Amino acid sequence: MSFDKWAGDLIGVPEGLHAIGPGQAALFGFVVVILGWIITSRQQKEKYRVESARSTLMTESEHYKKYIPHVFSYYSDRKSFPTYPEVAAHPKKELGTSVQGILTLLEILALDVAAGRASERYVRQSQRSMVCTISICSQIYINSARESRNEKRLYQALEILFIRFYFNRYHFCQWTLEFIWGQPLYRYSYLMFRLRYLIACVPFGFDWNYRHEPWPRIKENLRKMRRITEAIFLGFLLILIAGIESAFPV
Q1: Which residue in 146, 159, 152, 153 sits closest to 114, CA to CA?
Q2: Are 57 and 126 in contact, with CB atoms under 8 Å apart?
Q3: Domain ranges of the chain
Q4: Which of 16, 23, 32, 54 allows an S-S link to 4, with CB 3.0 to 4.6 Å?
Q5: Can you give the pLDDT at residue 45?
Q6: What pLDDT is attached to residue 61?
C-alpha cells in the first residue's frame, strides 16, 4: 500500500491524499499546526523544569555538603534517626540542624516538583536514592515531630514524592492523565497508595494509619499482594478460556 493510500485511509479519505478537498486540507493543516504547537510547548516547558530542578539542586548541594557528614552514619546504614525530642535534647546540636536542614531542602524540592516548577523525571534520575533513603531514615523522626509540633501535614510534599518514587508503578491510566495535565498528579498517586494500603491492612495485619508501619515492610507486602492479585487474575483468565473452549469446541 502506498503512503498516499495509507494516509488517506488514516484520515478517512479512501481515495488517497490527492483526493482531499480544500476544506479537508485546511482542517488537516490546522490540526497539524495545533499538534506541533502542543508538542513544542511541552518540550519548552520540560526544558524549563529541568533547568529549574538543576538550578535548585546546585543551590542545595552546598547545604547538603554541610549537613550530610553529621547524618552519614544513619544514611549509609539506613538506620532511623532519633525521635524529634531526642534530637532536640542531643548533646551534638549539629545532628538536629542537619536533619531539619536536609528535610527542609527536600521538602522545597518536592513542592517545586508538585507545582510543576521542577522536572520530576530529572529529580527521579538524580535524587531518587537520596529522597528514598532520607525518607526511610527519618520516618520515626517526622512522625514524632508532627506529634510534638501538632503539624500533621509537616513534610507532606516530601512524603508524597517519596511514595511516588518508592511505591508507584506507572500504568497507562496514570500516564495518560499526567500527560494531559502536563505535570505529576500528586493527589492521584497519594489516593491510589492509600487505597492499596487499606486493601492490604486486613490480610497483612497493618495498622490502619500507614505512618505507623515501616516503609520497607509496606513495600514488601504490597509487592506480595500484587503478585497474589496477578496470580488470581491469571487463574481466572485461564478458567474463562477453558470454559469458552469447552462451550464452543473447534
Answers
A1: 159
A2: yes
A3: 171-250
A4: 16
A5: 64
A6: 74
